[in-house]
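hey can u run this one w/ aspartic acid bound, need the structure tokens asap thx
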Amino acid sequence: MRQKKILLIYTGGTIGMRSDAAGHLAPFDFNALHDEIPSLKQLDIDIEVLTITPIDSSNVTPQRWVELAVIIRDNYALYDGFVILHGTDTMSYTASALSFMLENLAKPVVLTGSQIPMGILRTDGRENLITALEIASATNADGSAMVPEVAVYFQNSLFRGNRTTKQSAEELSAFSSYNYPSLADVGVNIAYNRAAILPCGDAHEPLRISTSLSENVMVIKLFPGIGENMLRSMLSVEGLRGVVLETFGSGNAPTMEWFISTLREAIERGVVIVNVTQCIGGSISMDIYETGAGLQSIGVVSGHDMTTEAAVTKLMYVLGSDRTPEEVKRLLAESLKGEFTA
Ligand code: ASP
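ok here u go:
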């Protein structure tokens, strides 16, 4: 069998740090990857490294997602898969955004990083990187990619990227996918959960990328005591197109007249409001309580069991191109890349 070719894209984050001679953390040179991690040669994979300006992922913007999507499109025919090394803080946002932006994906795009820098002896980065490379080059018996979707690999688990959330700033298992099973569990062997993996895009069709993302999107997290003035001023930001409303429990919110009418006015001005839960797991059901029914009656859209990360990036994607309100509604009601449980 032909040796698999993987493009390893280094974007920054903790994984790319090592101790310098003075004992300070300094960036690791991924272009000298084989010298830094000689054991990589044991993988029968042709790895090429591309470094783009390394940043702490707290500085990620939608422009970086466009940059990544363009790199993947331009190199798509040359590689069997892509591994993106990324800071953990916003990895779930990047994975979610790419899942929507890369259309007709038939190859793996696996994001990983680490909690402990690569240059520290006890690093989790080495295993995360090696296994991500193995997963990105895994194929089915017919030669098609085993995981033809945007995924996050971290600490023995492979997850659908747009289902992940960074759940711990301390634990090595930094990511969870509360509402969707893992795509693979890694022990002595890599056990793929084939039934959970998205079907492959049409390998005879090109990859299409969507590069226009709306930045007129915000998140509003409800809390007891949120005031009318606060809500009104957030919703009157100029140019606002979409809001992810983080509500209580199964999608509940205050029933006060001012609350509902402030949201209703925004919706009437064309702002799309998507309801997601503040709970780490579970789904929106706006028809259980009166406190959810009020939102439903004014046209708040259910985010089902989407993460905030997926809801924000989906809104950016859906509102990024010129679409009619009907089209926007239809795309939000549909699970485009397995981002919610239909
Ligand atoms: N602040 C870092 C980042 O997200 C944390 C990490 O990589 O784990 O870039």
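The chain has nine helices and 18 strands. anyway lmk if its weird
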